[in-house]
Design a protein that fits this description.
The protein is mainly alpha-helical and 463 residues long. It has 18 helices and 9 strands. The chain has one domain: Alpha/alpha barrel (Glycosyltransferase). The strands form 4 sheets. The protein has a 3-stranded antiparallel sheet. The protein has a two-stranded antiparallel ribbon with strand order 1-2. A hairpin with a 6-residue loop joins strand 8 and strand 9.
Length: 463
């Protein structure tokens, strides 16, 4: 009997109206140097948003996609970190919180190498950037070479990865750690509930919530959680944004972050070879990271990867979509690939049964189909899963996910996230990475990507 994951379905047809709609969003969100995730709720440049946006923007303008990444990397700190927000000085301070006057990067981050002339946050987001740079290069290699694009971004990307695998290896097992729930990008995930209980929230009168002016309170983090986020960010700032040698109340190894680091490390190997550098150190690091990911975060009983709380040393039992994202990693043991695919199709995530893959286990105690990262489906995680499934030969599942993502994107006005059961819009609309990744899904030819099944072909489909 053919399983759902392997049953073929036709690829989604090209949709010119959908393409025009996605392009409209990216053009409207372009600031001249980068793309905001949304004009209202997120009026600055966000790190992993820009990486995903560049992946889609390359289908409209390779030059703009290059500039997207170059602008972000222009705000890199001397210690190698790429900050999660680069602030636009033309935007009013009260348009977003935490604003530049909260982070005080140029002053309080000076010891860690924060740039003097650019205000940023002091935390980071998942490292999708080398993957994005490589895909932007592939969109027009001649134009990339003529501008020296990869030669210019390669040192910055290498320093970024060295920061994550050096200063951020707080667990000593080779994986990068995150120090704030905002860093893995899945801000309000139930995975953070237990670690956050240790945190005394900041007083309610010490900060303001600009997000509630642009989104329904029922879809956003609670005031209690937000107070804890502010406390953690303020404490990190007051430490001078120090990593090693500092006691952190929140320190977690996240499988999604480290899976993206591995894929981007493979991409760095491709970039190194293209620019005349030695790819071997990058491939060796990717192999070490993959082994550490399996050793430290794989849970055979759950059939997926889990987060590890570095404060108590234990795996966090909550099951989020981050635990499925290692499907994008080339070279995973086949039994782990099979288990991940089975978990994705099982009752917790119901891949192929419902329109979009939820951000949290449908059967979990904290599931909420509308609240930020506690159940709604996101297009960036769907895009990563589609790519991972296809790369590992699960073409039927990948085709189905691609088709439902494209249908959902148009129907929800390129929403930030959607109800996983109905694909009804949640969060803000005209969201940057939703539009960008829609363009990428429309532009790629699944038949060509599915043509090979050798290890090299699998790796090529992933990076």
């Amino acid at each position: 009997m053919t399983s759902l994951l392997d049953s073929p379905v036709p690829a989604a047809a090209d949709d010119p109206a959908l393409r025009r709609g996605a392009a409209r969003v990216l053009y409207a969100n372009w600031t001249g140097a980068s793309t905001v995730p949304s004009r209202g709720l997120y009026p600055h440049q966000w790190s992993w948003d820009s990486a995903f946006i560049a992946i889609g923007l390359r289908h409209l303008s390779v030059r703009r996609a290059q500039r997207e990444l170059e602008t972000l990397l222009g705000a890199q700190w001397a210690d190698g970190r790429v900050p999660h927000i680069v602030f636009n000085p033309a935007v009013a301070l009260d348009a977003y919180f935490p604003s530049p006057d909260f982070w005080r990067s140029s002053r309080d981050g000076a010891a860690a190498g924060a740039p003097e002339g650019i205000e940023t946050s002091g935390i980071v987001q998942p490292p999708v950037h080398a993957l994005a740079a490589w895909l932007v290069h592939l969109a027009d290699p001649d134009a990339s070479r003529s501008r020296g694009f990869l030669s210019r971004v390669y040192p910055a990307l290498t320093a970024w990865h060295e920061y994550l695998t050096g200063a951020r290896d707080l667990g000593g097992g080779g994986l990068a750690a995150v120090l704030h729930p905002w860093e893995p990008g899945m801000d309000n995930s139930p995975c953070w509930d237990a670690p956050l209980r240790r945190i005394e929230p900041a007083p309610a009168d010490s900060y303001r919530r600009a997000d509630l002016a642009h989104g329904a309170a029922a879809e956003r983090p609670t005031d209690l959680d937000y107070g804890r986020y502010v406390r953690l960010a303020g404490d990190y700032r007051d430490s001078g944004y120090a990593d090693a040698g500092t006691r952190h109340a929140f320190a977690v190894e996240d499988p999604g972050v480290n899976a993206l680091l591995i894929v981007s490390e493979h991409a760095l190997g491709r970039i190194a070879a293209e620019t005349g550098a030695d790819p071997a150190p990058h491939e060796e690091r990717a192999a070490r990271l993959t082994a550490a990911l399996v050793e430290r975060l794989w849970s055979p009983d759950d059939g997926m990867f889990l987060c590890r709380d570095l404060v108590d040393g234990e795996l966090i039992t909550e099951r989020s979509v981050a635990g499925l994202l290692p499907l994008v990693v080339p070279g995973l043991p086949q039994e782990i690939v099979d288990a991940l695919a089975g978990t994705a199709a099982g009752p917790g995530f119901r891949l192929g049964e419902i329109p979009m893959v939820p951000s949290y286990d449908l059967t979990g105690p904290a599931f909420d189909p509308s609240r930020y990262w506690r159940g709604p489906a996101w297009f960036n995680t769907g895009w990563l899963l589609e790519r991972g499934l296809r790369g590992h030969g699960r073409t039927g599942a990948a085709d189905r996910l691609r088709a439902t993502m494209l249908t959902s994107a148009g129907a929800c006005d390129f929403a930030e996230y959607v109800d996983p059961f109905t694909a009804e819009a949640r969060g803000t609309r005209d969201f940057g990475w939703t539009a960008a990744l829609t363009l990428d899904l429309l532009a790629r030819d699944p038949a060509e990507e599915d043509a090979g099944s050798t290890p090299d072909a699998v790796a090529a489909a992933l990076v």
